[in-house]
């Protein structure tokens, strides 16, 4: 059967001064072509202001995983009173006949 993609992260919370979390897309089986996973974000933290990431992950043909790095933006404003968070989700999967395994998303506290 065609492979499915799951999404995970290694840190559920990152420090506000440049902390990182590795986002990993994993295929259930190898495929003949590159698979591109497009990511979307929502939440109280703002992409480009509070954090950055490339927004897509490529799993190359014959591989099972690919990664992106979520990095909080170091700034001079300490936001301890406002716990911000971002929700990262798969918004699209293309290539290798792969598809998303159910609905994949998670939150990261910044």
Task: Give an overview of the whole structure.
- The protein is an all-beta fold and 110 residues long.
- It has no helices and nine strands.
- The strands form two sheets. The protein has a five-stranded mixed beta sheet, with no helix packed on it. A four-stranded antiparallel beta sheet has the order 5-3-7-9, with no helix packed on it.
- The protein is elongated.
- 26% of the residues are buried.
- The mean pLDDT is 91.
What is this structure, in a nutshell?
The protein is an all-beta fold and 110 residues long. The protein contains no helices and 9 strands.
Strand line-up in the sheet with most strands: 4-6-2-1-8
Give the overall pLDDT as a whole number: 91
- First and last CA, distance: 38 Å
Number of helices: 0
Q: Specify the oligomeric state.
A: single chain
Largest β sheet strand count, sense and barrel closure: 5 strands, mixed
Q: Compute the number of strand runs.
A: 9
Tertiary shape: elongated
Sequence stretches where pLDDT stays below 50 over 5 or more residues: none
SS-derived structural category: mainly beta
Strand content: over 45%
How do the SSEs run, as a string of H and E? EEEEEEEEE
Helix content: under 10%
User: Measured on Cα atoms, how large is the radius of gyration?
Assistant: 15 Å
Based on the model shown, name its key terms.
mainly beta; 49% strand; elongated; 110 residues; 4-stranded antiparallel sheet; 5-stranded mixed sheet
What topology does this entry show?
Blueprint: E1 4-9, E2 20-27, E3 35-43, E4 51-52, E5 56-59, E6 65-72, E7 85-94, E8 99-100, E9 105-109
